[in-house]
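Incident review: delayed structure delivery

Summary: a single-chain prediction request sat in the queue longer than the usual turnaround. Root cause was a stuck worker, restarted by the on-call engineer. No data loss occurred. The affected request and its eventual output are reproduced below so the record is complete for anyone auditing the incident later.

Affected input:
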Amino acid sequence: MSNSADSPGTGSTGSPPVRSASFRPVRILTVGVFALAGLIFFTSFNTAKGTDIRTDASLLKLSDLIQERSRKNKELDEANAGARDEVEALAERDDGSSKAQDEKLSGLEKSTGTHKLTGKAVTVTLNDAPPNATAKLPGYPEPQPDYLVIHQQDLQAVVNALWQGGAEGIKVMDQRLISTSAVRCVGNTLILQGRVYSPPYTITAVGDPEKLQKALADSPAIQNYMVYVNVYGLGWKVTDDGTVTLPGYSGTVDLHYAKPVD
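Output delivered after worker restart:
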């Protein structure tokens, strides 16, 4: 502590120091605090413009924005599918003068997945394990959170195996896959062609059921996945669906590619 001449207790009589009539530092600090508080209040009001900041659409959580974008993408896909049906209806009114071209176009549409596809099919369902799962077999470690969820590689393994098994067409959730489709996961959610999905995930393939199921069983990546199914309880189910109809791909077929930055 400083031993200045103004400190209490100094002087021959021991009397308290005389109060000065000027502003003390405490009073000046108090005035400054109130002024700052007023400035903050004015700035906050001017920013809010009389609106409820907590419900401002610009401050929605990122997850809400993703869900909203997914919903709009679904609406656009449905509108695109409707327009495509109208085009096909108009094409059927053709007088037949371009029959060869129509047959060629039909073959291309079938191979690209833009038309509906009917045939025998199998469906694979994958799901996360229960959050309180424990190792069901001796010799395995207790599960980490990463062990209990479906990953992008698991979905890709199923899709690749089904293509190798001779699938004529594949649907993931409610969307038809085409050559430019990419199965991607962020966390434990699937992002497919601009839309977001949560588990359980369903993958349906049209083709020879026996060949499709054999391809699933022979896949090394799926064999590795089955270890987690048996030990930690990840979901796995393969069903023979009989005859089903896959929808045609309803999204855009425009190609997106990287561009150099100047």
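Verification: Confidence is low (pLDDT under 50) at residues 1-26, 42-60.
Action items: add queue-age alerting; document worker restart procedure.
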